[in-house]
Amino acid sequence: MTVRAQRFTAGVLAALAAAALSGCGLMPSMSSVGDADFDAPLPIPPLAESRVEDGVRVFSLTAQEGEMEFIDGHPTATRGFDGDFLGPTIRAERGERVAFEIASELSDVTSVHWHGMHLPAEMDGGPHQPIEPGGTWEPTWTIDQPAATLWYHPHPHGSTEQQVYEGLAGMFLLDDERSRAAELPSAYGVDDVPVIVQDRDIDRDTGEMDHRELHGKGAEVGLLGDTVMANGAVGAFHDVTTDRVRLRLLNGSTARTYAFGFDDRDVALVASDGGLLPEPVIRERVRLSPGERAEIVVEMEPGERAMLRSFAPDLGTVAAGFAAGANDAFDVLELRAADELAPRPAPSWEYEDVGLDEADAVATRRFELSGRKINGASMNMMRIDEVVELGDTEIWELRNDDLSPHNFHVHDVQFEVLSIDGDDPPAELSGRKDTIYLEPHREYRVIMRFEDYADPEVPYMYHCHLILHEDEGLMGQFVVAEP
Ligand SMILES: [Cu+2]
After folding, report:
1. From the CA of 406, how far away is ligand 1's center (Å)?
2. How close is the Cα of 237 to the center of ligand 1, in Å?
3. From start to end of 201-352, where are the E strands?
4. In angstroms, what is the span from residue 365 Cα to ligand 1's centroid?
5. Which CATH class is domain 42-181?
6. Which of 63, 259, 275, 343 is the most buried (most CB within 10 A)?
7. CATH superfamily of 31-39+184-342
8. Residue 5's CB: how many other CB atoms inside 10 A?
9. Which residues are 294's β-sheet partners?
10. End-to-end CA distance of the chain
11. pLDDT 10s per residue in the chain (483 long)?
12. Do the first three CATH levels of 42-181 and 358-481 match, i.e. the same topology?
């Protein structure tokens, strides 16, 4: 019996009963709430080392094979950057020139994409910048965007899901004057904590984590694992020493959407994909689809323990939600407050308005997602789908025509949400975004400006970040060209 089967046996009767009651029998809901001992210290990804040469900050990264012991006594084959699983946190300052020496010790083609970064297309690390087995890649660009929590991961066409699932991902933090002056917890790994949340399906008998086995028996959205980990640790806790703690949440899962929160407390959402929001947004739950980030500030009382959970997420769809994880809930990370907590001020900062104005838009493009196609076409690396003129502000209309979930990620730019079904977006979508969850059959209008880096030859991608969908063709290509 596989791990999965054994594990399901325990909860399956209750789940099936619940499913029968709810009238949906597609797939049992998963839950780890209250199951595990949270006795593993949260691993904090190390800050990547760098050196400065001729004014350029140079980082080195190696994609390599690894091994983890997620299940006691059973090693799991994994991959990581400069280690067994995940990668170091890269940190750079706005205005800095950065360069990377990336080496691959993998046996298959990979790439390294800088998710959320504004940079030249040939530095983007998408499917057109492959790194061959044993090969290297040396991108360089100048950081030119507001402070934000970004991330990096492979993007080879057709095998991105597999490589991210195996562990190739890391955070990329950008700082600027405003973020440094902000009243926000900022001690990395202490009160400013990276939290990469991912789900996995691990065989309890062998430790094996081969996602391909699950294609066909997984959900339409891709693999939905029943083991949820934070920075590669299952059942992790973090010791909190301040009365406010900032969590930089990254949904690094390939298919699963989470609704993060605590049982009974509001959190302050302070930043989304593209950086700080206009002002803190108080929420009980924060929904994140694959690829999205959220920075939240959590208030703590001395001596208390608070469990960061993912509650059953509202996917905006009844029809397929059950099979897409809408009924699943997980414990993610336990916060353990010390008996005495150092005070931290209430979150505040100076917001940077980048001046995206609908009146400036010179083009409107429409993208309808269905199955594995955008506007009826599936990804073709030889075809440029859209040509954008350098300097233009554009409105993109996004629509998920299916009843099951999709989201939408655009490379190179951060966009702002103008409206959803004609209404103002909710406050949690008031900041800049590079990835947005598309509730089925709703009209999303977003605005963006393509202000740099014309290159008529090398395209950027836009795609669904449910990575199975992306791998299977739900992706298109645009170039930014001189007028
Ligand atoms: Cu999709």
Report:
1. 4
2. 32
3. 227-230, 236-242, 244-251, 258-261, 267-272, 275-283, 285-288, 293-299, 305-311, 330-342
4. 19
5. mainly beta
6. 275
7. Cupredoxins -  blue copper proteins (2.60.40.420)
8. 12
9. 249
10. 61
11. 333 333 333 333 333 333 333 333 344 478 778 777 899 999 999 999 999 999 999 999 999 999 999 888 899 999 999 999 999 999 999 999 999 999 999 999 999 999 999 999 999 999 999 999 999 999 999 999 999 999 999 999 999 999 999 999 999 999 999 999 999 999 999 999 999 999 999 888 888 886 655 555 567 898 899 899 999 999 999 999 999 999 999 999 999 999 999 999 999 999 999 999 999 999 999 999 999 999 999 999 999 999 999 999 999 987 767 789 999 999 999 999 999 999 999 999 999 999 999 999 999 999 999 999 999 999 999 999 999 999 999 999 999 999 999 999 999 999 999 999 999 999 999 999 999 999 999 999 999 999 999 999 999 999 999 999 999 999 999 999 999
12. yes
If you measure from the C-alpha of residue 400 to the centroid of ligand 1, how many angstroms do you get, rounded to a whole number? 8
Ligand 1 centre from 441 Cα, in Å? 13
Task: Report the separation in Å between the CA atom of 194 and the middle of ligand 1, taken as the mean of its atom positions.
Answer: 26
What CATH code is assigned to 358-481?
2.60.40.420
Q: How far apart are the CA of 221 and the centre of ligand 1, in A?
A: 7
Domain boundaries, the chain: 31-39+184-342, 42-181, 358-481
Q: Are 113 and 152 in contact (CB under 8 A)?
A: yes
Backbone φ and ψ of 323, nearest 5°? -80, -5
Instruction: Output the pTM of the full model.
Output: 0.93
